Amino acid sequence: MAFTRATGKHRKPSRAVRVSANAAGIATLAATGVVAGLAAPAMAASPDETHRPTEDTGLTQAVVIGEDTAGRIGEQAQVQTSAAAENTAVHEAEAAAKQEAADVKKAADEAKRKAEAERKEQERAAREQERKRLNTFVSPIAGSYVSTSYKASSGLWSSGSHTGIDMHAATGTSIQAVGAGTIVEAGWGGAYGNNVVIKHNDGTYTQYGHLSSIDVSVGQSVTAGQQIGLSGATGNVTGPHLHFEARTGATYGTDIDPVAYLSEHGVNL
C-alpha cells in the first residue's frame, strides 16, 4: 500500500538556506563553543528515507572547527599568561638587583665616609698630642723647691745678683728638660760647672748648672721630662743643688724670671 504525504512536508531545504544555517552554526560555535542546534531533538527518519544518503548539514565540521579554535585560544591564553608572568619576574628581578646594587653602594659610601672621618679624627688627635708634647713643660726636678730666688743679692755671683734660681737637690738627683727642644750646649760652663743649655720650640732657652754628670750632647733633641743629667756641686757652689735659668737668648745676660717663665707654661714651683 502506498503512503501518501502532504506535498512539501519533508521537502529538502534549498541550498541557500542550508549554507546560511551552516554558517550561522559555525559562527555561533566560534563565539560560544556551543552549537545551538545540538539542543534540538533528533528527527526520526521516515521509512522511505532510511536508505537515503546522510545529508551533510555542516554541524560535525562546525563542532570540530569550534573545538580546535577553542583549543588554540586556550593555548594562546596560556602562552600570554606565562609570558606576562615571566616578564613580571624579570622586572622584579631587575628591580631587586638594582636595589641591591644601590644598597651595596650606599653601604660602601657610608663605610668610606666613616673611615675618612675616623682617619681625620686620628690625625687631629695625633696633632693635638704632638702639640701638647711639644708645648708641655715640667719642673726641672720633680718634687723639689726653690732654695734661692731669682735676683737674690750676694757676692757669690759676679753680676751681684742671682741670674736664675737654685733648687734643692742632693748629688745624683735626676735633672730633666723642662720642655721639648734641642741641646745647644753640653759640657763645662766655668762658674756653672757642668751645664746644659736647651733651645726650646718657642725660641726661649733654659740652662741647668752644677751637674755631676751630663747625659745629652749638642744637637740632640729632647722632650719634656727627659733626663739630661744628674745634679751635683761642680763650678762655683757651696754645696750640691741645681742652678736653673730661663733666657730669651743663648748668651749670658738675657735671663728672665724662671718661676714666672715656668708658670706661663703651666708649671708652678
Automatic annotation (TrEMBL):
Residues 161-252 form the M23ase beta-sheet core domain. Residues 1-44 form the signal peptide. Pfam families: Peptidase_M23. Keywords: Hydrolase, Signal. Gene3D superfamilies: Glucose Permease (Domain IIA) (2.70.70.10). Coiled coil: none annotated. GO terms for molecular function: hydrolase activity. The keyword Transcription does not apply. The keyword Metal-binding does not apply. This is M23 family metallopeptidase.
